[in-house]
Amino acid sequence: MLGGLSSAAQLPETDWLPETQANEAVVEDGQLLLEETSWEQHGKIRWHQASRLERLQLPGMTESLLLAIEKHEQQYGPLLDFEEFQCIDGLAVEQLRIWRVLIRMEPNFKLKLVAEKEGKHQLLWRTRHILENQEGYSLSRQVDGRSFYAGSPWQQLFRYRYDGHPLQFAVVLERDPGEIPWQLSFALSGKGPGKSRWMIGDMRYGAGYGLTINTGFYAGKSSDPLLAIPLSSGLRPAASAAEWQRFRGVGLQFSIHPKVEYQLMLSYTRQHASLGEQLQDEDAEGTQRLYAAGLFRTATELKKWRQLGEFTAAQAIQWQHKKLVVGWSSVFHHWEYPFLPSNRPDQLYQFSGQKQWLNSLWWRGQWRNLSFYGEMALDAQLDRAWLVGWLWPLHKTFGIQGSLRHYGVAYQSPYAQSLSARALVQGESGKLAGFWWEPVRKWRIQALIDHYSWPWLRYQIDRPSAGNDKQVWVFYQQRKQAQWSLRLRTFETERNRSQEGPFVDPNKRWQLRLMYRFLPHPQCDIVLGYQQSQQLSPTPTRGYGFWQSIRWQAENKKLSIAAQMILFDTDTYDTRLYVSERDLRFASSMPVLSGEGQRWMVLSQYKLGKSWDVGLRFARLRYFDRDEVGSGLDLIHDWKRTEFKIQLLYIL
Asked: Is 99 in contact with 85 (CB distance < 8 Å)?
């Protein structure tokens, strides 16, 4: 908890969750779901199946840059691997770092590009339902006066998007399972004189390297050189089904000089907040923390959460001269009710008050082949946070990276995201180093070590502590149609001993993932994988899983079918597994698996004519070691849980 303010996305520790998904994931019924978080489609897009319009909506993509890519593909054929983007003239390394986490390369190697229909209008409807009966929807609970879900078990999502160049508009209506009210999100954006741009409605905003504010996607620490530098998202419209990490108001960005750019955002948003145990009263004049995904399904939840009014004013100015960029950002928050302190010792430095003001100076530059970056931030109480780093390709096949960070124990920024061993930019110091190396053709090795320390207590750690995170990735391109990848990751932290008494024990674990992907046919893609998780101390436990997925696409590109099967066996939740699954367009899922069981998924998508896309998805989780799935109001008195999704997409 960030001094009374929870992190912008409260998630479980996602060891294998890709960084771009970790930022936008939603925890629902024990499963991590990645929904489309922006009408600009900042989820991963399939490059070879994406329309020209979808490609243009990538951050930083311009008409001239896209024409250069299309010219390259016409001359040399489709881009088969992400590294081939480096052959495009005018494409900066910083753009590649961003696109690396947004683009999925699925060329099928011999696939001929067939552009999808472009259109100004796009209408989408998606629904999701759990087929088994969940405890929260039981009529007996309503009759007995016990807590129950007030709404329908069907999740509904409607979205309309218009792209008229230069005017763009989107609106999203979404209702979670069990809720009665609908969630509305909208965004209107347009181009002004010169390079100026304005927007009204819901927005995401990030400045510098995320020490003051960053509510867009965030790549996190990575051994990949294209992802090594933490870059914020800037100001962009974001009509989204997500109910947090966004601002509703007006935004403006323009150039006041050929070398100077300016951004301004003014917003008033009703954020989700927790009243706390002693404040569950509609008339309570206070709150305890912002909450990432407050649900309003039961009388208890309606009593626990409140819509907290939040006014935010943010501005940033950036000056660029050749390869040097220097910027200053300022963010001011004012909340409707003050945040009250907590009595917990680990939250001694939590934020209390009704307003916060943050300022930061950030920079980046390049000298020869050395790239460097940094940011220094201050809050209203003059508590500091700073980050510096570098990226140095010493040879075309070898390079190093490193960074130093220090976030004050009392530094408070509710929407900060940057390099960190946990979700908060607070109370942490760290040193990170890594390298990448291509010893021979077709082989690539990436490694990273991050050592960090926390100067104060943390949840389940009743003393100042330290830890480290080590990663090694090995890639081997066997041939154009086959690739191997191996990832080993180790963690070492500390945790309170389960027995009574002020004792802290080492907490050590490691994880291994092996994956093989090959294409036996231009329209067929097969992936085989194995993952193992081992906790060495304080109590030895283990978990492992095998999976296989296959995807087939018809030659006319109208029909595609995908399937996946996972077998898993874990001793405890601490050795849980994450395995990515294919999902409907503009959606993604990554189930969290623990216990003993299997999970299978079948996905089918079909094009009806030139304008309609229809998608169906079934996924079933089956346990071998229990007769119930879930807990609380999500409990299912059965050994299985089946999810059904259907989606209709119309493009005109």
From this structure: yes
**Per-domain boundaries in the chain:** 41-118
Residue 640 has pLDDT above 80, yes or no: yes
Higher pLDDT, 334 or 220: 334
Distance from C-alpha of 301 to C-alpha of 294, rounded to nearest angstrom? 8
| Cβ proximity of 198 and 251 under 8 Å | yes
Residue 42's nearest CA partner among 154, 197, 221, 187 is 187
Selection from 117-126, 490-499, 546-555 with the highest mean pLDDT: 546-555
- Strand 45-46 relative to strand 103-104: parallel, antiparallel, unpaired? parallel
CB-based contacts of 488, cutoff 8 Å, min separation 6: 471, 472, 510, 511, 512
CA 599 – CA 37 distance, rounded (Å): 26
What is the number of alpha carbons within 13 Å of residue 450 lying toward its C-beta? 24
Structure tokens at 232: 């914020």
pTM for the model: 0.81
442: left (phi over 0), alpha (psi -120 to 50) or beta: left
In angstroms, the CA 277 to CA 428 distance is: 28
- Is pLDDT at 100 greater than 80 in this prediction? no
pLDDT at residue number 277: 47
Is 641's pLDDT higher than 90? yes
Tens digits of residue pLDDT in 109-149: 433 333 344 568 899 999 999 999 999 998 888 888 888 88
Lowest mean pLDDT across 227-241, 405-419, 475-489: 227-241
Instruction: Determine the Cα–Cα distance for residues 542 and 524; give it in Å rounded to an integer.
Output: 34
**What is 41-118's CATH number, 2.30.30, 1.10.150, 1.10.3470, 2.40.128?**
1.10.150
Residue 502 has pLDDT above 70, yes or no: no
User: CA Rg, the chain, in Å?
Assistant: 24
Phi/psi-derived region of residue 278, left when phi > 0, alpha when psi is between -120 and 50, beta in every other case: alpha
Taking alpha carbons only, the member of 26, 1, 2, 4 closest to residue 589 is 26
How far apart, in whole angstroms, are the C-alpha atoms of residue 557 and residue 560?
7
Quick one: tokens of 226?
A: 């294209």
What is the C-alpha to C-alpha distance for residues 13 and 415, in angstroms, rounded to an integer?
A: 18
Instruction: For residue 351, name the pLDDT band (cuts at 50, 70, 90).
Output: confident
- Long-range contacts of 371-376, Cβ-Cβ distance < 8 Å, separation of 24 or more: 371/93, 371/229, 373/209, 373/229, 374/209, 375/208, 375/209, 375/210, 375/211, 375/418, 376/211
Query: What tokens appear for 642 in the block?
Result: 């089946």
Length of the chain in residues, anyone? 652
In whole angstroms, give the CA distance from residue 431 to residue 451.
Answer: 5
Furthest CA-CA distance within the chain? 73
Phi, psi of 60 (to 5 degrees): 90, -10
First to last CA, the chain: 46
DSSP 347-368: GTT---EEEEEEEEEEEEEEET
DSSP string, 5-46: B--SS-----SSS-HHHHTTEEEETTEEEEE---TT--S-EE
CA 573 to mean position of chain CA atoms = 22
